[in-house]
Amino acid sequence: MSLLAQVTLSMLDLVSTRSGHTQLDAMKESVALAQHVEQLGFERFWLAEHHNIEGINSSATSVLIGHISGHTQRIRVGSGGIMLPNHPPLVVAEQFGTLATLYPNRIDLGLGRAPGTDQATMRALHRRPQDAEHFPEQVQELQQLLGPNQHGQQLRAIPGADTHVPIWLLGSSLFSAQLAAKMGLPYAFASHFAPRMLVEAVQLYKDNFCPSSTLAKPYVIITVPVVVAESEQEAKRLATTGQQKILSLFRGQSLTLKPPLDSMDGHWLPHEQQGVEQFLAASAIGSPTQVSAKLNALLAQTDADEIMVVTDIYEPSARHQSLSLLAELAKNNPSGSRQR
User: Fold this and answer.
1) Start-to-end CA span in the chain (Å)
2) Stretch 222-233: mean pLDDT
3) Is domain 3-228+283-329 classified as CATH 1.10.390.10?
């Protein structure tokens, strides 16, 4: 049996604006996307905190989590992630405690320590570069605020206390892998933009994992850019939308999604092409057979429990079809045999 048939599938979305469309369109399309992957049996739908980036509309992450939770029935909705040093832990605990009260057993709290923006916006958030150094203590404070009230405890999250919202640590380097292992928390690696350290980070996490009251054994999500189409040629055409997006990121331009191109030739310089390809090195792009082979290879390298898909395709219908084809590849998933 393929490894892909044994893992859980989930989705990461940035609520991207498409060229020629509005921010409201992007939010409506995100809701429809969550509904679609819920029907396909995906486990989670996560949104990522970013600020002051034209084309990405997930800045008010907890607000969107509530909106999407209210328009879905079963799928877990969460943050991939909340950049904790941007916020007081009490505020995060209150927001996610409220969400967990409204949508019991459906909310995830993924945490990162990067600012999710540029230096000027970081200052506007009243965040200092050194604030990331306090990330471990902030995670512990958040755990306490979401856990049971202790005798004599003066600071409480209301709602939030005793909701036990699941906390995940997210990372693109080795720091969060070590911290997640030490704290006995589940770990998600951002291989959709930082594939170089994927295998090392996952192995470090697993080798050093300490069982906790939260988790008895390691649990790993890897985020992977995936574009599936009936033919390799069509998949590569659709994937040029994501390639243009990363190229725009490198050039400091808007990240609004652009329509696909027949070829990227002439649209980037050789060093830009190399940079984009390195950025997207973990991508699985192609026909169902090709995507299955790539994902199975990634799973063999990492023994991940869950694949969280990132799919930048311009037309919503083509995006939905790509995800349907992916779900078909994993249709033998034995009711989430590795879920926890």
Assistant:
1) 21
2) 97
3) no
